[in-house]
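Render this sequence as a predicted structure.
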Amino acid sequence: MTASLTTPEAAAGPSTAPQLLRRGTVLMVGGGLLLGTLGVFVEEAGQHPLSTVWFRCAFGALALLLWGAASGRLGELRLQGRGLLMAVAAGVLMIANWALFFAAISRNSIGVATVVFHVQPLWVLALGAWWLREKVSKRQAAAAAAALAGLALATGLLEQTASAAAWGPGYWLGLAMCLGGSFSYACVTLIAKAAPGIGSFALAWWQCLVGMLLLAWWPLMHGWPEAGAAWAWLAGLGVLHTGLAYVVLYAGMAHLPTGRIALLQFVYPGAAVLVDWLVYGRALSPLQLAGVVVMGLALAAARRSGD
């Protein structure tokens, strides 16, 4: 772990609002770029989705625990009352998000599942206005819609033929799972913002612990991966994409308005599309490249409107 995991809420010294906004933006962009490589680790591990989720939680919890011990921050993990309840709730919601999204992929295509799942920034905007009473400008709403349209282009969804989709009960169930997963993740985002007394380190660790407990039955019933490279890829998912990435993301969320958080979360899927191209040679078409440009412009517009 690096010094960048020293969260803003624990940092000493005065900071101006623009400095906090820049710091939060840099942290969220960095976390999103790191998460963009997650798909490579999932594919190379080659495990069942529930096994992948459990090992991600297990290795993530261990990595966070070791980092907390080395940095003298284990005391932050002792939560009680409302703080403990919110941390556990965030953990349940995050595991529901992962499980629903992975299950939806087997019923829809990856492109369809990804696009439907990423309506979650719109959930964040709506819930932020309702729950946190934050004002959402017309410009932010328009930027969110433009970013979603760009994401649809970037995944190649609009280049698929309508006949490729099996519009049966399973397909619609997959869409419902995506919507449920996106709503769960939006709620996690708002819990992270509405719980200023819980540090990003504690919130990430409790999510991993809850995931370990909820899904412990799966590896016990279905066995462990064979010795070899799969363990290294699964460990990377826990250490890098859960231990490091989520602490960085939550630290960034602590100093950003909900509207900007919603738009910066598009960094992750945008990075995933690019990584898929760079690593596996799945070249982006002209429409996909146009989608990446639209997403970038929308993110820039949202950033200016949030300043």
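Summary. Residues 18-306 form one domain. Residues 14 and 20 are 10 Å apart (CA to CA).
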